[in-house]
Fold this sequence. Notes:
With about 140 residues, this protein is of the alpha+beta class. It has helices at about 10-20, 25-30, 35-40, 45-65, 95-105; strands at about 1-10, 80, 90, 110-120, 120-135. Strands 1-5-4 form a three-stranded antiparallel beta sheet. Strands 2-3 form a two-stranded antiparallel ribbon. It is globular and about 45 Å long. The two termini are about 15 Å apart. The mean pLDDT is about 95.
Amino acid sequence: xxxxxxxxxxxxxxxxxxxxxxxxxxxxxxxxxxxxxxxxxxxxxxxxxxxxxxxxxxxxxxxxxxxxxxxxxxxxxxxxxxxxxxxxxxxxxxxxxxxxxxxxxxxxxxxxxxxxxxxxxxxxxxxxxxxxxxx
Length: 135
């Protein structure tokens, strides 16, 4: 059963300006070490696109959690990782994980689904939260 959905469209130029203006202060505050390492393996617009997609994923996840960035849900508590196949996934910690736990009905487990894309100058992410029977 679907218990949350969220979508976000991000202007890549906005992320580029934030990186230019605030540099590491912005990157360290918003993105996990894994996210920074993945994005920084790229150059130019591909690097900006990687950051913008992850920004959009965090925003979409906060919407799917139903809180936005409040009640302990911060950019830093939502992480985007990739499976060996390349499929993006979300990892929640702290307040984001706690919020997910309150959403999932008893006897069920929460599963997060993430899809991301970019086409300059935009990045888009969609998150669905599914409750499935616990094994």
